[in-house]
Write a structure and sequence with these properties.
It contains 29 helices and 27 strands. It is α/β, with parallel strands linked by helices and about 850 residues long. It has six domains: about 100 residues, 3-Layer(aba) Sandwich (MutS, DNA mismatch repair protein, domain I), CATH 3.40.1170.10; about 130 residues, 2-Layer Sandwich (Nucleotidyltransferase, domain 5); about 140 residues, MutS, DNA mismatch repair protein, Chain A, domain 3 (Orthogonal Bundle); about 100 residues, MutS, DNA mismatch repair protein, Chain A, domain 3 (Orthogonal Bundle), CATH 1.10.1420.10; about 210 residues, P-loop containing nucleotide triphosphate hydrolases (Rossmann fold); about 80 residues. Strand 10, helix 5 and strand 11 form a beta-alpha-beta unit. The two termini are about 70 Å apart.
């Protein structure tokens, strides 16, 4: 039988605590260090780049060890969490001086990717959402909670709706029941950071009771979420999870709101991704949110992202935003003054959340005080304008004068960053504190008084007072004057030239001064805790201030961006026509080389006359950009922004669907074509009368005739739909689709024009009526650097195809003729091994499934055979 390892009391305590948090990396406070042991130490050393050593070297209890100074926690904690670790912080819960046994320890906080408020972990301009998901048959409940801001949102709906929300809100962590994990991965993939919980919090009324207890109510009706039972389960479990991660001071989570699906434009997950609204699979790409973000505060930046993924579809609400933006566009002086004040506010949302969590340091409280002064000024500035929307904001802004004045009187002007450093509470707040400070910090004057008095009483002119660690404060007398020393003085030390004495008065003073600093710290901490508690009473009004200022910030930002980028106010109406004159792509135009102007284009879509536009033209001519810019202009208008155009008259759109570019999902076992068909099927099954559909190169993932057939059928389906005439831009390289306009009256042909100069093609990027006959793919291949001989052969094949492709003759027959000609190559004898190899290669070709690029590659392969 193996001998059990002996454990020290410290390691026994460590293992007991570690067992309670099996999935977390435990930072164990030992004196001035946070230590990690065993596997945790190996992980920490690798992630943090710190030394891995051993505890109890050579003994039976030898174990891996890695640690860092406790004051470096702010540096190392973010690195661990960003590496995907759940980190349990175990602190000493009592003063080691006060106990003779092992110090009591316990986990004070469990930090996970989705449960953090540390500014070094959470990004300033981005929410840090914890998502909680619960599956119930065909309905899924979801909640999004940001502990750093107090935002708490809930929704429920279909798999597609939840998928769209996950794409838009981008949670950093998702929690769900263990038994539902497989279902989650099947629907939403494995790219998210997830953590599974036991099933019991999802059963019975437990989750609902968590909500009722937290908000101290008898029903959730007042929050408008009582008809979302599945969503409420997800929300209740989120609160349970916060409690499990040792976060119990949650008074800043003072509200919960439902995400009102009916209020917002539908953007499916493909559209959010394809239009690159807030993120992109291409690391170098600029997103729409980056182009539109010139906000003055982090909370404004976070709200802007939410507006972008949730555009409005109520005309009145859109008009209200546009009117305020127009007002700020015209009133530049007021706009600049408001922006200056908002910059003074800082991140009020996260500041007040730290107060609720009881984690705010003195300097953060001072910043809160400054923010409330800025709120007062903002209230004054917004109450003057004639704008009704601004006056509503002014009425709701609350500078919280009583608590602001209390902060002013209680705290020093520039307090220490940590309460235990002292110098936080102002003079005049507490009589005992002032007295102790005079003792602790006015000591020199007091000692000089004693020295002067005793020197005069004894007649010892050279008398001096000093201090050492052995017997504290003392009086030093030179041998010349030692006969003048009073009997009440106690001799402590004899030197060569002098003697040292102590007195009762000095001993009393010493006891006072040594105890004063500890007493000062206790009093300061008590007063500071009381101040935090008083501020916490104002969490709700300060959170409302933060929401109002964030909204004001985004609208001011829209005015700044509009002026900087030459945007115009769109005209929004209840009609169904989209009429954009001189439209530009907001992102591409910002990335053009200096001096190059963006080529503008007009877009006109009308369900009655020009419902579907088929756009042909060569690759690289700008078809995709035109599709995206139309979608982005409509979206920008419906978030309340001005738009990049000369003029835009837009009927409200309720859904934007996109199928833009190839989006392979091969890692999930799906081909490009399968993904393309899934996305397109989602569009066809969800269209409405106010939808805008942007289709790019549908069907190119399969054989030519399959592709043309599918694209043709899609256009017909959209045109002939009995209930909805969805406005559609359809970019394609299948020129055969130009024939649709002869049989479908609301289909119109346009092409992105090019100019041929000799063998070169100049892309004009201008949309003009009529179809295009050429794809100019060979010109693009030449620009990409394909070998000249390959290009020459491709040109020859294209020429023959175009000559032979008359009437209804099929491309397949033409390719067969070209193959037949290849068999009859005259430059080799019939038994030439090279010719036989080429013949076999051609015989093995499946013309039906061959794409143009594959044909070019096959020609290149044949050419290499000829060269060899």
């Amino acid at each position: 039988m193996a001998k059990e390892k002996k454990q020290t009391p410290l390691m026994q305590q460590y293992n007991t605590i570690k067992a309670k948090y099996p999935g977390a990396l435990l930072l164990f406070r030992v004196g001035d260090f946070y230590e990690t042991f065993g596997e945790d130490a190996v992980k920490a050393a690798k992630i943090l780049g710190i030394v891995l050593t051993k505890r109890g070297n050579g003994s039976e209890s030898e174990t891996a060890l890695a640690g860092f100074p406790h004051h470096s926690l702010e540096t190392y904690l973010p690195k661990l969490v960003r590496a995907g670790q759940r980190v349990a912080i175990c602190d000493q819960l009592e003063d080691p001086k006060q106990t003779k046994t092992i110090v009591k320890r316990g986990v004070t906080e469990l930090v996970t990717p989705g449960v953090s408020y540390n500014e070094n972990i959470v990004q300033q301009k981005v929410n840090n959402y914890l998502a909680s998901i619960y599956f119930d048959k065909l309905t899924v409940g979801i909640s999004f909670l940001d502990i750093s801001t107090g935002e708490f949102l809930v929704a429920q709906g279909s798999i597609n709706y939840i998928d769209k929300l996950l794409q838009g809100f981008k949670p950093t962590e998702i929690i769900l029941g263990k038994k539902q994990f497989k279902e989650f991965v099947a629907h939403f993939g494995s790219a998210y950071y997830t953590y599974t919980l036991e099933e019991w919090p999802y059963t019975g009324d437990y989750a609902n009771e968590c909500l009722l207890k937290h908000f101290e109510v008898n029903s959730m009706k007042g929050f408008g979420i009582d008809r979302m039972p599945i969503g409420m389960v997800a929300a209740g479990v989120a609160l349970h999870y916060l409690n499990e991660t040792e976060h119990r001071n949650l008074q800043h989570i003072s509200n919960i709101s439902r995400i009102e699906e009916d209020r917002y434009m539908w953007l499916d997950r493909f559209t959010v991704r394809n239009l690159e609204l807030i993120g992109s699979s291409n690391e170098q790409a600029t997103t729409l949110s980056e182009v539109l973000d010139d906000t003055a505060s982090p909370m404004g930046a976070r709200l802007l992202k939410r507006w972008i993924i949730m555009p409005l579809k109520e005309e009145k609400a859109i008009q209200e935003r546009l009117q305020v933006v127009e007002y700020f566009y015209q009133e530049q002086e007021l706009r600049d003054e408001l922006i200056r004040e908002i910059k003074q506010v800082g991140d009020l949302e996260r500041l007040i959340s730290k107060i609720g969590l009881l984690k705010a340091n003195p300097r953060e409280v001072t910043q809160l005080k400054r923010a409330l002064y800025a709120v007062e000024r903002l209230k004054e500035l917004t109450s003057k304008p004639s704008s009704e929307s601004l006056q509503i904001i002014a009425e709701q802004l609350n500078p919280c004068l009583i608590i602001r004045d209390k902060m002013e009187k209680t705290l020093q002007a520039e307090p220490s960053i940590a309460i235990n450093k002292g110098n936080v509470i102002a003079d005049g707040v507490d009589v005992d504190l002032d007295k102790l400070r005079r003792v602790a910090f006015g000591g020199k004057d007091y000692l000089l008084e004693i020295q002067k008095r005793e020197s005069e009483l004894t007649g010892i002119p050279s008398l001096k007072i000093a201090f050492n660690n052995v017997f504290g404060y003392y009086l030093e007398v030179t041998n010349t004057h030692k006969d003048k020393v009073p009997e009440s003085w106690i001799r402590k030390q004899t030197l060569v030239n002098a003697e040292r004495y102590i007195t009762e008065e000095l001993k009393e003073y010493e006891e006072q001064i040594l105890g004063a600093e500890e007493k000062i710290q206790v009093i300061e901490q008590r007063i500071y805790a009381g101040l935090l508690s008083d501020i916490a009473e104002y969490i709700k009004p300060i959170q409302l201030n933060a929401q109002l200022i964030a909204k004001l910030d985004v609208l001011l930002n829209f005015a700044v961006i509009a002026q900087k980028n030459f945007y115009v106010k769109p005209s929004i109406n209840q009609g169904k026509i989209i009429d954009i004159k001189g439209g530009r792509h907001p992102v591409i135009e910002k990335n053009l080389p200096i001096g190059q102007d963006y080529i503008t284009n007009d877009t006109y879509l009308d369900p009655e006359g020009q419902q579907i536009i088929i756009i042909t033209g060569p690759n690289m001519a700008g078809k995709s950009a035109l599709l995206r810019q139309t979608g982005l202009i409509v979206l920008m208008a419906q978030i309340g922004s001005f738009v990049p155009a000369k003029e835009a008259n837009l009927g409200v759109v309720d859904k934007i669907f996109t199928r833009v570019g190839a989006s392979d999902n091969i890692t999930s076992g799906e081909s490009t074509f399968m993904v393309e068909m899934n996305e397109t099927a989602s569009i066809m099954n969800n269209i409405s009368d106010r939808s805008l559909i942007l289709l790019d190169e549908i069907g190119r993932g399969t054989s030519t005739y399959d592709g043309i057939s599918i694209a043709w059928a899609i256009a017909e389906y959209l045109h002939n739909h009995p209930a909805s005439r969805a406005k559609t831009l359809f970019a394609t390289h299948y020129h055969e689709l130009n024939e649709l306009c002869t049989s479908l009256p609301r289909v119109k042909n346009f092409n992105v024009s090019v100019k041929e100069v000799g063998n070169k093609v100049i892309f004009l990027r201008k949309l003009v009526p009529g179809g295009s006959e050429h794809s100019f793919g060979i010109h693009v291949a030449r620009m990409a650097g394909m070998p000249p001989r390959l290009i020459a052969r491709a040109s020859e094949i294209l020429k023959r195809l175009e000559q032979e492709r008359t009437g209804g003759e099929k491309i397949k027959d033409s390719m067969r003729k070209i193959q037949k000609q290849a068999y009859q190559l005259q430059m080799f004898s019939i038994d030439d091994p090279v010719l036989e190899k080429i013949r076999d290669m051609l015989n093995n070709l499946d013309v039906n499934s061959l794409t143009p690029v594959e044909a070019l590659m096959k020609l290149d392969e044949i050419q290499r055979v000829l060269k060899n």
